Amino acid sequence: MPLDALRTVLAEVAQLQAGYPFRTTIEEVPGGDVHVIQMKDVSPELGVDWSAVMRTRLAGRKQPDWIVDGDILFAAKGARFYAACVGAAFPNAVCVPAFFHLRVRPEAALDPEFLAWQINQPPCQRQLLQAAEGSSQLSIRRAVLEQLVLAVPPIAEQRRIVALAGLASQERQALQRLIHNREQQLQAIAEGLGAEAGSH
Description:
With 200 residues, this protein is an alpha+beta fold. The chain has helices spanning 10-13, 112-119, 122-131, 142-146, 155-199, and strands at 6-9, 14-18, 34-37, 42-43, 47-48, 54-56, 72-75, 82-85, 93-95, 99-104, 149-152.
């Protein structure tokens, strides 16, 4: 841990709440005024895929705490626990209860993208996996997530790490595209050879 990093727990620097409590299956309403973020719409690498997010209407009277830019979604159920920082948020967006909705406290000197990045790193992941519960499907309780131990360096250092992580992500995507293109090229060669062999 860097000498100037502050040791803290998640509840000290962020507000946590469960996703919107849908009572029944979520119904798609094409002209609905609410956007519902589900597990399939989110990845730790790319964040929220807003083009896939479903529209609906909310039946309850409870006014939701809408998701806004800079909020973090934490996937608390399933094979992988991860955080994704929300960018370019649609208006009137909520998430399903499989997520915890996190918001950095105004007084905390903490970059939300840095927080999401740190949650996804091995030291935090080890803490989460040790505390996960459930037999058929693992999950993280709110009290466990609130006590997640973090190391928070000065804000300039946080932003430097976020920029570095962004570059690494771009490089990974570029490499994946190269691999995909090369595989397609080889497939085309194999198909061509197969066609040639078949014509003899």
